[in-house]
Amino acid sequence: MKFKSQKVAYYFFALSMLLFSLQIVYGFIMAFAHMGFDGLHEWIPFNAATATHKNLLVVWILSGFMGAGYFIIPDESDTELWSVPLALLQFYSFAIVGVIAVVGFHVGWFEGRKFLEIPRPLDYLVALNVILFLVILLMTMFKGKKRTTTAWVLTSGLVFAALLYLPGMIWFDNHTVDSFFRWWVVHLWVEGVWELIMGGILAYLLIKLTGVDREVIEKWLYVIVGLTFLSGILGTGHHYYFIGVPKYWLIVGGIFSSLEPLAFLGMTLFAIQMYRKGNKKHPNKLAIYWTLSTAVVSFLGAGLLGLAHTLPGVNLYTHGTLVTAMHGHLAFWGAYASLVLAIISYSMPLMTGRKIFDNTIGHMAFWFANIGMIGMTMAFAAAGVAQVYMERIMGLEFMKAQLEIEPHFFVLIIAATVFSIGVTLFIINFLKFGSPVDEAIGQGEEFSALQTS
Amino acid sequence: MSSEQHVLSREKNDILHPPGGILIWILIFLEVITFMIALSVFAYMRSRNAAMFAESQAMLNPLLGTVNTIVLLSSGYFMAEAVRKLRAGLLKLSVRYTLVTILLGLVFIAIKSFEYSQKIEHGIGLEYNTFFTFYWLLTGFHLIHVSVGIVILVFIYFSLRKGRYDARDHEDVETGAAFWHMCDLIWMLLFPMLYLIN
Amino acid sequence: MLNNKTGWLLLILFTLAGSWLSGLSHAFLALVMILFALKFFIISYQYMGLRFAHPFWRYSINIVVLGFVSVIIFSSL
């Protein structure tokens, strides 16, 4: 850690971990409900559980990104954060809005739009909050002497993400038009501008961890990320297939979304290549594991499993089934969850001065979580294919098909348990770090000699 | 060995340095492949409904298309010449040829706009039928590329005039030229597929 | 020997030939596609300087273009 103010990141990471645990709890509630054990129905009906599960996902990952921003930007710009009190204010308001939203879901205070369930008054608070966050980051950047490409890409990703929140706040009377813009929010995030954030964080981690020249990493990674970004913007057309928009979206969405895996493949090969090219001397093995797994699993989950049902002819059958859940789980885990865990693994030793780089718990957390998630993906795949066959080909009623696929959720729960053990171990490791201290300033500087081979 | 070959031969056999830079070539390949995928889908759709596609194709104006192809190819020629002159150190000629390239690019856009306006007048829009959906999307995306190419060339034109490039240092010009030629390449695929063959 | 000027002449010639042939009969599909593939090669090899590039780039473009043209030609048979 170079600057005192980077410690702010810790709050966001801690909030991330807390919300992540909650998200998993709600996942279990739904998995049991799917199996027929819906004892909590009175208090947490399925629609509230699914809304909470998805919104917590978005919020904990955003919280992780904000932490990453507060950690990376001062380092890259070579200056203290512009204002620590404002950053803390932003943190607390963010947490409070989050809590109100989650509680609201349980008492029926939400909009029924998938991923955008947060009620309108809270939307404005979120927008204000994000503006404050961006102001702090930008002021820090302009205060600093250095403005690196990585810092720019990361910040522009965050700015665009904020801008794309707005289309979800406009009121439309027409359901199709509303759906059209609804996809701009979370899905242009994950397929578009979040790729910029991902590129920025990945580049930062690879520069720090592999020791390969900054110039090489920045030039290449941003080309790849740029391609992902460009294919992703029109690739979002694959959400428009059967929602009532004109037919040409079948062609646009089909072609551009099919290209997305290519860019992901490039990112995977590139990250592995950089690791092999590097000096492999950085002691923080856990951070390297998570960084590389981000590159690999995002290709599998977002790239390949996305490709599996992105073509209109296939999607006609799989639209809105558990096949989507299969893709969604591994994609979010690989691309964004692993990324947040990677930056946490990298930054925590630097903020606290405790060198938890290579311990058994950390490695177990990595393998349990990844294997568990792959198991979950397979369970979802089996359930999804069975559902598609029964519901869309045999013409069984929705609930009858759900009854038939109940056994698959048993497998899902077993895999999810393995996954949760991994995440629990990760959180134990996180707690072992304790809180950040000022004495940790200068921590990690000894590794800077490893950089720029 | 001519001066041009001399300049280029230093890059020979270097996989990481194709003329214009590796990044632009990755982009070119992705663009070309994307358009090829779209055209393959187009060909498949045509095989399923040949009569409708033939009827719709007859509504296009092959003469305008041919003229536009010639305009685009000529602009490509002038761009190639601009780069060649720059390599030979003839900066003034290079600037002039770049300007001609830009003007021809604008002529292409003008003819294309005229063609578009005729289609719109006849009520043939994006959703007229499958053929015209492809027609609008493919030529539209191509037109966007041409417009972006012109913006790039305008930047290059002003930088050339300011004397930022010379016979030795001109990779940006090569990259911009490669982008412009890419528009030709894409059009070489679109034009026969949409206007000519059936 | 091909240079920019002869390249341009060939390009125009092939364009006119392509338009003329396709107007005569749809049986010339293969020929028209081959003419346009040739134009593709003139632009990439002569104008873009691909002939001085590493074989990797030349083979890649050859494979992509010839692959596409043969798919179009054979699927129309």
Automatic annotation (TrEMBL), chain B:
Keyword Transmembrane attributed: yes
Domain Heme-copper oxidase subunit III family profile: 24-198
Similarity field: Belongs to the cytochrome c oxidase subunit 3 family.
Organism: Caldithrix abyssi
Membrane topology: Multi-pass membrane protein
Compartments in which it is found: Cell membrane; Membrane
GO MF annotation list: cytochrome-c oxidase activity
Coiled-coil blocks: none
SUPFAM superfamilies: Cytochrome c oxidase subunit III-like
Listed transmembrane segments: 21-43, 63-83, 95-114, 134-158, 178-197
Pfam families found in the cross-reference section: COX3
InterPro entries in alphabetical order: Cyt_c/ubiquinol_Oxase_su3, Cyt_c_oxidase-like_su3, Cyt_c_oxidase_su3-like_sf, Cyt_c_oxidase_su3_a-hlx
GO biological process: aerobic electron transport chain
Keyword list, A-Z: Membrane, Transmembrane, Transmembrane helix
Protein name, as recorded: Cytochrome c oxidase subunit 3 family protein
GO terms under cellular component: plasma membrane
